[in-house]
């Protein structure tokens, strides 16, 4: 819709009345009714994956922009894209081709079980990939893990996707424990440039762990 509106704005000036009417029509398309459409989430995510170079920081930027959109559909696409990024880096075994979708917190925690930072750094010898991975985890933390809803609010806002945004205390605690353990492993990762280690440590100590400060009393 945004792209179409921009294209309309680029029409010749003498067609200003037509441009204005077309723009109003395009911008008034009621996308909200498609916000909870699994098919729309799949198609939009698929289009982004296939048509836009989403490696590395490009993927992070796309997710970050979509996650703060006023469109709920785009926020769902942000979560779906995040799991695309996790799969690209961790390469978990897949039994069959699945549609792009919003996954549950249990699925996210399953990726953490596949991840051993020490092993990843040694096998890949790629601190950039490790940084990209941690940034994806940080984005998911902000979009899902740290969000709190009462039951009615969760069901009302997310409808059939409510379970994908329902975070139980034990799940939040599991992520907290993983962060504490993994932050200590960062110091064991060898690098020719100490700045690399500092950047990785900052992700934990500045971007991720402090978000738990307000709820530490809830974590046993």
TrEMBL record:
This is Uncharacterized protein.
């Amino acid at each position: 819709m945004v792209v179409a509106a921009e294209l309309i704005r680029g029409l010749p000036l003498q067609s200003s009345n037509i441009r204005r009417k077309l723009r109003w029509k395009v911008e008034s398309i009621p996308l909200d009714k498609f916000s909870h459409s699994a098919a729309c989430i799949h198609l939009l995510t698929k289009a982004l994956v296939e048509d836009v170079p989403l490696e590395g920081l490009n993927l992070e930027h796309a997710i970050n922009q979509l996650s703060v959109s006023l469109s709920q559909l785009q926020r769902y696409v942000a979560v779906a894209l995040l799991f695309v990024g996790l799969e690209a880096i961790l390469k978990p075994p897949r039994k069959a081709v699945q549609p792009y979708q919003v996954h549950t917190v249990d699925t996210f925690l399953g990726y953490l079980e596949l991840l051993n930072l020490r092993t990843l750094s040694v096998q890949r010898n790629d601190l950039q990939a490790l940084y990209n991975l941690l940034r994806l985890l940080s984005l998911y933390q902000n979009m899902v893990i740290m969000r709190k809803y009462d039951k009615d609010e969760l069901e009302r806002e997310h409808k059939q996707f409510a379970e994908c945004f329902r975070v139980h205390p034990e799940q939040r605690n599991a992520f907290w424990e993983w962060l504490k353990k993994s932050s200590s492993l960062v110091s064991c990762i060898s690098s020719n440039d100490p700045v690399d280690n500092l950047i990785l440590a900052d992700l934990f100590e500045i971007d991720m762990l402090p978000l738990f400060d307000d709820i530490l009393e809830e974590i046993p």
